[in-house]
Amino acid sequence: MKPRWIYSECKIYVCNFIVSYIPILLVRLFYYRYIMRYGIGKGSCIGRGCKFNGSGLLSIGENTVINEYCRLDNRASIVIGSNVIIAPEVKLMTADHDMNHPQCKGRERGIVLEDFVLVGAAAMVLGGAQMKKGSVLVAHSLLTKSTEAFGVYQGLPAVYQRQRAHDHAYGKGQPTQ
Questions:
Q1: End-to-end Cα distance, the chain
Q2: Domain enclosing residue 166, as ranges
Q3: Which of 143, 93, 144, 139 is nearest to 120 (CA)?
Q4: Domain CATH code at residue 43
Q5: Which residue blocks in the chain are alpha helix, DSSP H?
Q6: pTM of the predicted protein model
Q7: Which of 56, 60, 103, 114 has the smallest number of CB atoms closer than 10 Å to its CB?
Q8: Where is the chain membrane-spanning (predicted)?
């Protein structure tokens, strides 16, 4: 065994089973930023009980909230924009197996959640998906592909439902009913 591999595994273990349950956000953020090397913007927070698969490869913009018990499989890059809300128990899964490969070879594909995205409780986003600005993934849905800006998606797999009213999100008027 190589010492670097052991250090990496211990760092992830401490992150997932000790640090993630510390009730003080500033302590968790310190560990995530300086030990795990996650880019976390000002005003953003990660709830207790969140699990990760590696160090680095996670970038979070400003004023983003990742609620409790989410799983961020950052074996490939996860880029989360600003003003994003990720509800509890969401899974962002970057790694899977290619069922079209004769040996079901493992693969890793990144995930991008642009600004003002909302991901509902217990939803799952698979590798290769990109949620465009302001899009919504409804609770308990499975996103397998990219979305349209301000689109609302729901189902297993998630399909387009409607356009989200968005003028109020940028201070350009009142919310529509």
A1: 60
A2: 3-170
A3: 139
A4: 2.160.10.10
A5: 3-17, 25-30
A6: 0.90
A7: 103
A8: 12-32
